[in-house]
Every structure is written in C-alpha cells, then in structure tokens.
Amino acid sequence: xxxxxxDDPVFFEKYSQxxxxxxxxxxxxxxxxxxxxxPDFTGKKMLDLxxxxxxxxxxxxxxxxSSVVGLDISHKMLEVAKNKTAFxxxxxxxxxxEDMEFDPESFDIVFSSLAIHYIxxxxxxxxxxxxYLKPDGVxxxxxxxxxxxxxxxxxxxxxxxxxxxxxxxxHYYEEGKRVAHFLxxxxxxxxxxxxxxxxTLLRQGFIIRDVVEPQPPAHMLETVPGMKDEMRRPMMxxxxxxxxxxxxx
Length: 249
What we know:
- Helix content is 27%, strand content 27%.
- It has 249 residues and is of the alpha/beta class.
- The strands form three sheets. Strands 3-2-1-4-5-11-10 form a seven-stranded mixed sheet, sandwiched between helices. It has a two-stranded antiparallel sheet with strand order 6-7. A two-stranded antiparallel sheet has the order 8-9.
- The longest helix is centred in the C-terminal third of the chain and has 11 residues.
- It is globular.
C-alpha cells in the first residue's frame, strides 16, 4: 500500500513548519555531509525520487544539470516545488516511485532524499534505477538509518522527569512495516537492515562508492533545539553507488 500522508492538510501544515521546509537545504542537518557526496551536475540528466519541495532538483539545475525530473506522490508537495522552481529544465510529475517507467539509460544521476524508507520493497526500485541509469551513472540516496527505524516508534526512552535516558533499538532483524510517531501523527515507514541496503545494491550490479552516517554540523548543535541529542545515535544513512561503465561490466 502506498501511503501519502503529505497530502493530509494537518500533517502537511506541521511539515511546512520544519526548518528543512522553511530554510531549504541549509535547514537540513545532513546537508553539509550530503553536499560533499554530490556528483558534478554539469550537462547531466537527473531523476529525483520523492522530490518533495524540489530543493535538490533546483540545486541540480542551479549547478548545470541539463534536465531534472522530480517525482513525488504528494500533490501538495509538488505545488510548492513548482512555485519555487524557476528553471525550465526541471519537470515535476506526481506519481509513486514504485510506478515510474522510463526508457533504459535515461539518466546520469538518480537521487533520493529521505523517501525510500516509505516504500515497502527496496529491490524493485534498485532494479529500475539500475536500468534507467547510463553506464557510470550515479545512484545517491539518503534514508532513515536502520538503527533509527528498527524499533518503530522513533522516540527516546525518558525518565519520570521527562529527561532522555536512551534510544531503543529492538527487532532489528525483523524487516517490514513500522508505525512511527512523526510530527504528532502516525506515519507508516519500512525498516530494513544495513545489510539489505548494501547487498541489494551489490546484487543488482552496483559498485558502492560511499557509505556515510551524517552527523549534525557543529554550528547546529548550539542553535537548533534538540540537535545535541542527535549525536547520541545515527538518524540517517547516505549511500552512493555507481552503475559500472561498459568496460567494467
């Protein structure tokens, strides 16, 4: 089942108040790490899966991408993205990534930011991405870290005074549906292990280039409430993989 909480008016309004919604890439704690892993966009064709407000699609266009296709299941998210985007080479389409269909070798880069943990199965997406990428093409994506998704609730354990004790990690090897409490609402996500992410890419034929657990930047630790606690456990995982070139296959 493809869930789309972002078209729910109450949930969308809460999401729109987050720093990453109001400030864009600079409001995302993982951005400084992710930015260093981005490929050269000059003259490249990019597919942005779960593009949301379009921040990364816009960034790619600003840095020379010849064309960008942004996909998202949320009409509300895409309305905002279209209003923010002034580049004619950026096109947005409302669809679930599970339903996407493109010609083989259509893109140089396939990118996704914090969206793949919303899909039930990763393998079919990895297979499609591999097909759509040109030789030497890059698949770069971020997801919620398996340590963060394992227990499901995605909240700390607290003492009687409301102080944080620790973060629960349980049922790690039991992959599948989790109901997380996000922005005061129940949201369905899917937990999978680090092994599943990596082995799925390798079995598909990708070469893994980077595996990174981003830490919050130092300047956010003092200025953003709760950010210091993000140093106590990983919240996100960034993976970069490459489709082999013709001589490597």
